[in-house]
Fold:
Amino acid sequence: MTVEVNVPDLPESVTDATVVVWRKQEGESVKRDEPLVDLETDKVVLEVPSPINGVVSKIHHAEGEVVNAGQLLAELKELNAKETKHDAANKINTLELIPDSADRVITASAKKMIIENQLDADDIVGSGKSGRVLKEDVISFIENKKSAINNISKIVKAKQPETDSLPGNELTGERIEKRVPMTRLRARVAERLLEAQQNAAILTTFNEVNMQPVMDLRNKYKDLFLKKHGVKLGFMSFFVKASIEALKRFPAVNASIDGNDIVYHGFFDLGVAIASPRGLVVPVLRNADQMSLADIERNISEYVDKAKTNQLAIEDMTGGTFSLTNGGVFGSMMSTPIINPPQSGILGMHKIQPRAVVEDGEIVARPMMYLALSYDHRIIDGAEAVQFLVAIKDVLEDPARMIMGV
Structure:
């Protein structure tokens, strides 16, 4: 029986996807729910699983091709119970190709790893009773082999002269270039950045905040916080809470433009920019005003883990009424962040740096951070933007305001 595998339904905002990599090739067997192919959209990488236990009989779209929702990706030949048993028998017979000798025995799990990694069983020393070769022995052999290869590579690389210092390099004029296509995510980010600059009147206002009160509060309770909630207390949760307080006072910063209308959102879905291997992603904390500091830190931590493993779903990054981005983790002192359409504002956080400030007529050193608010001047006046940033500054320099709601 032949089973078709089609491109899954895509959200309205996503029109197509690119075939990134086929996990299985034609003629290879695949188990039910095992990843068959990865598709990259403008926002996420989708894993398309196999619907059956079967064999890939035909692939209809090669890696790099663009596909639409519902298009045929591949055809699978379903394996019946008899064929499955036959495959299992063949697997056993394959394991028997590695015979045990009179002076030692190789366990079944070890044989399986030897076959899968195309190793020579005679090269592996057994640590079990009477020289029995265990699975752990095979794993150790593979790791030692990889380590040896890496060491050789390092030695060879160390002995090779730098390209720029090679004699005659200036004469030959050889200069290496590498051309690679943009990922869908990178291309989409570029498109949206240009869209924001072309379609919005973006201005940026700056301020600075004394982080000492937040740092003192964090240092005092971070161990207890971790013990009780199972998540570390970072700075981002304070900024999220401070932003919500400011958004409540200045609803235009939480609004967006739709045609000739201004849409004021009665909820607070805050996007938090996260660096991933594929580029910048902005997952959304929905109803962030209803979250505790622990909820915020936990959700951000989960998003970071998902971003690292390309597990973010499209719904994780859809929507959002306001965004935050922290360039300080990379050492940025000051920047002008670009708003994420159709949002009207984004808060930029930067590196905490000890600086001289005047308090009560005296010069003292304080851990200071520059803040930047980029905003759409079409709906947000300059005075509102400045006061919004001052409100965030006030809350962070006196965290009790978050509790008192003042």
